[in-house]
Amino acid sequence: MARLTFVGGVHPYEGKELTMDKPIKSVLPKGDLVYPLSQHIGAPASPIVAVGDHVLTGQKIAEASGFVSAPIYATVSGTVKAIEPRRLATGGMCNSIIVENDGLYEEVEWPEVKPWEEMTSEEIVAAVREAGVVGMGGAGFPTAVKLSPKEPDKIEYVIANCSECEPYLTSDYRRMIEEPELIIGGLKIAVSLFPNARGILAVEDNKPEAIKKLRELVKDEPKLEVKQLQTKYPQGAERMLIYACTGRSINSSMLPADAGCIVDNTDTLCAVYRAVTEGRPLMERIVTITGDAIKDPCNYKVKIGTSYQELLDDAGGFYKTPQKIISGGPMMGFALWDTEVPTTKTASALTCLTEDAVSAMEPTACINCARCVEACPEQLIPKNLADAVEHGQTDRFLKEYGMECCECGCCSFICPAHRHLTQLIKGMRKIQLAQRKKK
Amino acid sequence: MSEFRNVSSNPHVRSGSTTTNIMLWVIIGLCFPAAFGVFNFGLYALVLILLAIASTVATEFIYEKLMHKPNTIGDLSAVVTGLLLGINLPSTAPFWLPIIGGIFGILVVKMLFGGLGQNFMNPALGARCFLVISFPRLMTNFVTDTYTGATPLAALKAGEEVDVMKMIEGFTGGVIGETSMIAIVIGACVLIMAGIIDLRIPGSYIVSFGIFVILFGGRGWNPAYLSAQLAGGGLMLGAFFMATDYVTSPITNVGKYIYGIILGLLTGIFRIFGSGAEGVSYAIIIGNLLVPLIERWTLPRAFGIPKKSRKEVKA
Fold this sequence. Notes:
The complex is a heterodimer. Chain A is of the alpha/beta class. Chain A has helices at 121-130, 143-146, 171-178, 180-192, 208-218, 238-246, 266-278, 308-314, 357-360, 371-375, 382-390, 394-399, 410-414, 421-438; strands at residues 24-27, 33-36, 46-47, 54-55, 60-63, 72-73, 78-87, 93-101, 157-161, 198-204, 224-229, 261-265, 284-290, 298-303, 324-327, 334-336, 349-353. In chain A, the strands form 4 sheets. A 6-stranded mixed β-sheet of chain A has the order 1-14-13-17-15-16. Chain A is globular, with a radius of gyration of 21 Å. Chain B is mainly α. In chain B, helix 1 runs antiparallel to helix 9.
């Protein structure tokens, strides 16, 4: 059988061996915790606590302010110190609730929950919404919205995105190795919402251990199966993943539901499982601290809101000077100039590299080699799009499907002339999206 | 935090492939036909090749110095142009011919249009055609001590019989690098295995040319004639090393096939219906000029865009 995959893509250095075999380590925050009100796509949450209030672990501190939004919970007990703008990993400022940790971790009383098998679909979705679960792969789309498509009958596949194609990251992998039953449980709950759906666990074939473990667990589950995908970046991009698993292709203006699919990240499914079976809100996630500048790369179970700096300290800090610190992986992550940045629901890793390939290479003339065309998973011509941006030809950019770009970075990665293709295209997309919003 | 750290947009890693690397591979690939040419025609052939390279590199260097532009000879593209031009000369050429050709190729065809990546035709081929037109006698003088007759292709055109085995091995008259099909194919295999070129352009070029010869060659299905046409002249060298020039070939996948087919048809027309025996250089140059048009025709649909709703999606 041909290995499941998509057209295009690249093979960056994986770097997963740094943290692949490091068990997940729980770390308790020492300093203040910062909860940005915008950790998801959609309207920012609105705070329901005031400065000086005492909060408990698991207490809701901000309420969802719309349909596409998510509430936020305190992950420690302590006092609300301030509500003020703080710097995010993406570079922008965001109004945040700052909680001074009292170190006691007093919890709220968890509500009684009935077994999920007895719950209705509406109750399950409500539980997920109430728990503030969002897509934890990076986009942060509220999961409850995802789980309530217009036509639930038409959903045929719920895909658990276990591919983790981003180099260096191993947080999903460790979850698959250590707590696979949470993922399977979450997937089972998601599948139960749709009468005609089957569950697929999509794993890249560079994780044979995880595939074995998951296969073992789904042996007796008639509705679930594990699919082995070819290891290639960006295999975990939603549209690529759907194509690899089902052969269906969707464009940027369609939703996975249009192809009868729902895609959820591993950590998201775990959060769904805990929200539904234990009534616990989303309070923690797994973060990989990695890179060749880190003394002791590791996977951490982190209370959301903990500063990256604390995780860095726990990982032994730097043993070489890092030139670049990235929130996320090297292909799609955000470069940081300061590590006093809070982890959010969507923070998957901190990658610290001693060498910055971007600044080490000057862009030179394009030689039309078509490597970007071969690599582009969206089958665009990145070279033309970047030219259009450089020449200010907005019409051409739109005509040649510039808005279909998924910003995966393959074109910049592969370009022998070191042109900043992704960066140019991404910039133009941002401008276009902002203009669309204005209209 | 006081330390300085770089901040930039994603991606933060690069594959490590560089223009210089690619050009180096092309040079390695070209060394096979060049080495055979030197072996076949003697040391003077090497002198011609080296003069061509010196001329192209020096032209680029001096032009950029005079124009106060950043020096780009380090990307080795000028060396590739010089090497290609060198092996496209007859071994009897006077020493100043490669020098003039190199200056023309780099200055007029490449630098005046904006340098690497902006040239609208292959500089080496542009230079070759310039030389053929300006010095027709010098550029078609293939009579050496070893080979006194016409080139195999000219003989074929005149209706004479040719030794196909010799043509494949390369012990015939012709320009320095074109005679040995074996050496060219070895060089091409090196490039294919290194991932520098693929078979889209050469494959569609050679196949469409072959079909054209069968249909219009006047000899029908005649394997000896067909293989002589394929092995003779600059077809193999052109298909693998010149038609695949990145800058002057289409960037789209479908466009590559169309480009190859156009080259095959043009070469067939020039060789069979034209007055001369050769046609590869002109075919590729005309093909080069059609590239922007081909690219526009063959703009691919993006992933997930349904076939008919082009306009809908745009709106």
